[in-house]
Amino acid sequence: MYIPFEDLPGESRIWIYQSNRKFSEEEFSEIETDLKAFVESWAAHGTSLEASYQLKYNRFIILAVNQDVQAATGCSIDSSVEFIQSLEKKHNVDLLDKMNVTFKLGEHIAHKPLIDFKKMVKDKSVSENTIVFNNLVNNIEEYNESWEVPAADSWHSRFF
């Protein structure tokens, strides 16, 4: 059951998928339609999940579930991953590779393999103050507070 993202409680569980490239306006529109349909039918053991999504920066897909109403289970999480895989195939993008880093370079959003990000740190092309996207946040509250943060305040800090 679709609920507006902003109406979900802060402890709602989230999953963040980052694209290896920016979505075109046409892709963005199609993905939004597909996401809405998926969330509307998303269920755990036959019980509808109170869920939502956000698309951010034409690059990130955020899925959220209010675990207080009905917890996402292994099967429902598997179905969401299958849905994300279907988006990967349909739009020829990579959404599941966790070995990539997305960060801001001024107003531009950059996406690099982790090894390239480490090289940028070494070359001082990025700093501890570089805004990174910490996709390891677990709930909406953490997402709102700790998703876009200086690298020094995220797991990326180990590279400095």
SSE arrangement:
Layout: E1 13-18, H1 25-41, E2 43-44, E3 47-48, E4 51-56, E5 60-65, H2 74-91, E6 100-105, E7 108-113, H3 114-122, E8 131-133, H4 140-146, E9 148-150
Antiparallel strand pairs: 1-5, 2-3, 4-5, 6-7, 8-9
Structure description:
This protein is of the alpha+beta class and 160 residues long. The protein has 2 domains: 5-91; 100-159, no CATH class. It contains 4 helices and 9 strands; from the N terminus they run βαββββαββαβαβ. The chain has helices at residues 25-41, 74-91, 114-122, 140-146, and strands spanning 13-18, 43-44, 47-48, 51-56, 60-65, 100-105, 108-113, 131-133, 148-150. The strands form 4 sheets. A 3-stranded antiparallel sheet has the order 1-5-4, with helices on one face. Strands 2-3 form a two-stranded antiparallel ribbon. It has a two-stranded antiparallel ribbon with strand order 6-7. Strand 6 and strand 7 form a beta hairpin. The longest helix has 18 residues, at 74-91. This is ABC transporter ATPase.
